[in-house]
Structures are given as C-alpha cells and as structure tokens.
Amino acid sequence: MKPLGLWTLPNAITWYRVVAAIPIILLLVSGSTTGLWAALVLMAIAEISDGIDGWVARRYGQVSAVGKILDPMADSLYRVSVFTAFAANRWMPVWMFLIMLWRDVSVSYLRVVAEQKIGTLAARQSGKWKAVAQGIAQILVVAVYAWWGTNLPANMSWLLWSALLVATLVTAWSLVDYGLAVYRGLRQG
Fold first, then answer.
1. How far apart are CA 94 and CA 76, in angstroms?
2. pTM, to two decimals
C-alpha cells in the first residue's frame, strides 16, 4: 500500500482549522458585531471539521502518520488562537488562558517523549472531552457577545465564566491524564 502524504482529504479538512485561526482572531478583536457573527460561522465550521476529519480518514482508508500529527497540532493552534483573542478582549481571565496554553504545550512535549521512549501516544478520551468543553465554551462566548455586545446581563456573565471554568478544569484534567499515561508507559518500558 502506498504511504499517504500531506495532501489527503482528511488533512485538507484539518488544515482548515490552522488557516481559519487568523481571520477568526482578527474578527474577534475587531469589536464589530458583524465580525463576531462572521467569526461564529468560521468557528462552527472549525468545530465541524474537528469532528469529521478523523471519520473521513478512517472511512476512506486515509489514516496517515502526517494526519496523526497534524490533527492535534491544528486543534491546539486553533483553540489557543481563539483563547488568545478572548484574553485580549478581556472575555476570560489570563490565568485560564495560561492553563489552556500550558496544557497544549506540555502535551506536545509529552508526545515527543512518548514517541522517543514508548511509542506513539494515542489520543486519549480526556483530550476529546477537552476539545468538546473548549469548543462549547468558545462558541457560547462568541454567540453571547455577538448577541448582547459588551452590555451582558449578569446571568450571562456568570454563564460565560462558568463555561470557561469548566473548560479550564477539563483542560487541566486532560494534562494530568496525558502526563500519567506517559509516566505509566515509562515505568512499564
């Protein structure tokens, strides 16, 4: 069987998240209601792409080593980019943003260590839950700011903070889960 390269349909779907991050950031920080609605559309497409790229790869026999690296990289770049805009807009506390960033950088290093010492570190369920929690929080935050602008009702401020807190806690848990997986693998190896 011929090895699959960079340009497969699932990898093209994954690349969307990397490319979309730049206009999404610009739209989020523009301060325009229209920009927020446009960002929301691009973000919804990014979330859909995150759900279907792996399915397409498995369904059409296009699972590749490149895709296994590109998918988590695209997820990290995209999500951290959106959270960067949130922090710049003061829509989330910087400490939450730093936990999101720290998790993604740390898991990237854990993957490198695992690859060198114990083999490829497969995606973990905690990573999938992290993606869901972050995706829901991101879509919710942008939708609420697009709808109400900066004059949020008190209950909406509380809802957004709660959604971001849940995403932050799930993200921290995912880091611990990946760290323990590598630790256990190193101990057994």
1. 17
2. 0.89
User: The tokens 């960079």 sit on which residue?
Assistant: 6
- What is the chain's percent helix, strand, coil content, to nearest 5? 80, 0, 20
H/E stretch holding 125 reads: helix 125-148
Q: What angle do CA 17, 132, 115 make, to 5 degrees?
A: 70
Domain boundaries, the chain: 9-188
Chunked in runs of 10, what are the mean pLDDT values of the chain (189 residues)? 66 91 96 95 94 87 79 90 96 97 92 82 85 96 94 90 98 95 85
Query: Biggest alpha carbon distance in the chain?
Result: 59
Domain at 9-188, CATH homologous superfamily? CDP-alcohol phosphotransferase transmembrane (TM) domain (1.20.120.1760)
Q: DSSP class of residue 118?
A: T
